[in-house]
Design brief:
The complex is a heterodimer of chains A (247) and B (264). With 247 residues, chain A is α/β, with parallel strands linked by helices. In chain A, 38% of the residues lie in helices and 26% in strands. Chain A is globular, with a radius of gyration of 20 Å. The two termini of chain A are 39 Å apart. In chain B, 72% of the residues lie in helices and 0% in strands. The chains are: A alpha/beta (247), B mainly alpha (264). Chains A and B meet through helix 3 of A and helix 2 of B. Chain A: Keywords: ATP-binding, Nucleotide-binding, Transport.
């Protein structure tokens, strides 16, 4: 039948808690004094395996700290798994924390090209899509203003507009539909549905709103404390998730 | 055949995809330095010119030290050293500031590489002022001047190597940022930018001889100002150091790049 586009094979991720954060000599000597230099392992993800077929829309459910965002980061290629492997096919576009990562002293116009290039697009391609992005984000008046003067809503809209015009094969969404005001939420949801239906885009979707997951996803994964406890059709998994949250 | 297999190399393919990012980032490095000032990009020329005038007055008039054609002597040293110090500093800070790599996969080396390239372009543009002063002060150029190209290329590669190394190390040890600032000023005083090495007591000259930046500046001066060919031994020494830092920088970056996002 349809081909596998994401293969997650026995993926585990480990953080070393003691080595996290900024390393400075002061911290180093302090922890040396307190004999804390020993390893303290933390596994946000343990032995997670699943496959996603083309066109599937997978909701990833779990409480805070269950490892949802870590899983998305591993699939997006931002983070390397400590064990196991992830294979993806086609263009992966992650929509994670959209409003950040712009260069603040750069204008909106310049940031559009910079972000486009970060996603691997040529300058020519960005010029073709430029008007579309600007109109969708509704920032034409502010194109030549440095992004430091943008409101957080404007930044989020701009981020969403650039990433979604990318014609992704695999779209990774982390709570992005909670961006902006009600009007923009509606507009962005429509745009996403459009992308999904017209191009048969595969979607990985993290949300705490079971309603959104019900509406958007046909498959689901349940994560509990870094382990995958359920995978399959979305219906029963959403029920189970509701049970957990009501406890 | 060889070309084709090279083009299909994973690394090359990846670079081809992100060459636009490299271009955008280089543009950004050059642009942002001079944004929001009235004279904008003219500061690239104005800054070394004013600096040269000031130091020429101080050193050749007040202090009475005489170096033949002091403005050119000074400018050769100052421009080259400025590129090294600003390029290595920009590369050092480039990855630390690139919070975007926490969200999207991007080849990490693009950031330090673009910083050094951007500063190099500024440096090449500022050479126009050097050319101008050469004409004004009537230096006679010979064919030997062409050899200045070699130290220019080596200077770029050395800065790139040091920059790659610093960009990686500073992510894990923030202290390096401050140490490097101090080290750069030490390096500056050991590069004989404002004065001739002749005023240094003989027993300390070795410090200068070992300094690759001084050697590069010396090579530039010899070929531009005096129309001489520099000592081939200088080339080997400087090239050796450059290759050492390039290899070290590349190895460090590729070894630790997967850990960056945990520390940024």
């Amino acid at each position: 039948m349809s081909e596998k586009v994401i293969e997650v094979d026995d993926v585990s991720v480990m953080f070393n808690l003691k080595k996290q954060g900024k390393f400075s000599l002061k911290n180093y000597f302090q922890s040396l004094k307190n004999k804390e230099l020993m390893f303290q392992e933390f596994w946000p993800l343990q032995n997670v395996s699943f496959n996603v077929k083309k066109g599937d829309r997978v909701g990833i459910l779990g409480l805070n700290g269950a490892g949802k965002s870590t899983l998305l980061k591993v699939i997006a290629g931002v983070m390397k798994p400590t064990k196991g492997a992830v294979k993806t096919k086609g263009r992966v576009v992650p929509l994670l924390e959209l409003s950040t990562g712009f260069d603040k002293s750069y204008t909106g116009r310049e940031n559009i090209f910079l972000r486009g290039a970060t996603l691997g697009f040529s300058t020519k391609y960005m010029e073709e899509r430029f008007d579309e992005i600007v109109d969708f984000a509704e920032i034409r008046k502010f194109l030549n203003v440095p992004v430091s003067n943008y409101s957080s809503g404007m930044r989020a809209r701009l981020g969403f507009a650039i990433s979604t015009m990318a014609d992704p094969d695999i779209l990774i969404l982390d709570e992005v539909l909670s961006v902006g005001d009600a009007k923009f939420k509606k507009k962005s949801f429509k745009k996403m549905m459009n992308l999904i239906e017209s191009r048969d885009t595969t979607v990985l979707f993290v949300s705490h709103s079971t309603r959104q997951v019900e509406k958007l996803c046909n498959k689901a994964i349940l994560l509990e404390n870094g382990q995958m406890t359920m995978v399959g059709e979305s219906g029963p998994i959403i029920e189970k998730y509701k049970e957990i949250t009501d406890k | 055949m060889v070309f084709e297999s090279l083009m299909n190399n994973r690394f090359v393919l990846n670079f081809m995809k992100y060459k636009y990012l490299l271009y955008e980032l280089v543009k950004k490095t050059v642009k942002l330095d001079y944004r929001r000032s009235f004279l904008g990009i003219f500061w690239i020329f104005l800054n070394p010119l004013l600096y040269t005038i000031v130091l020429t007055i101080v050193f050749s008039t007040f202090l009475g030290r005489y170096i033949d054609n002091y403005p050119i002597y000074l400018l050769c040293g100052r421009l080259a050293f400025d590129f090294f110090s600003s390029g290595s500093k920009a590369a050092m800070n480039s990855l630390k500031k690139a919070s975007i790599i926490k969200r999207v996969y991007v080849p990490k080396y693009i950031y330090p590489l673009s910083s050094v390239l951007g500063k190099y372009i500024t440096f090449l543009m500022s050479l126009i002022i050097l050319a101008l002063l050469i004409i004004v002060t009537g230096v006679v150029l010979t064919w030997q001047t062409v050899w200045a190209i070699i130290p220019f290329i080596i200077l770029f590669l050395l800065t790139l190597g040091v920059g790659l190394m610093l960009a990686t190390v500073v992510i894990f040890f923030r202290d390096v940022k401050h140490l490097w600032g101090v080290f750069t000023s030490l390096l500056m005083w050991c590069s004989a930018i404002f004065y001739s090495i002749d005023i240094i007591p003989a027993q300390f000259r070795a410090v200068f001889e070992f300094n690759p930046i001084f050697q590069i500046i010396d090579m530039i001066r010899k070929s531009v100002m005096y129309g001489q060919f520099y000592d081939p031994f200088q080339v080997f020494y400087v090239l050796g150091i450059t290759i050492f830092f390039l290899v070290l920088g590349i190895c460090l970056l590729f070894k630790y790049q997967d850990k960056f996002i945990l520390y940024i």
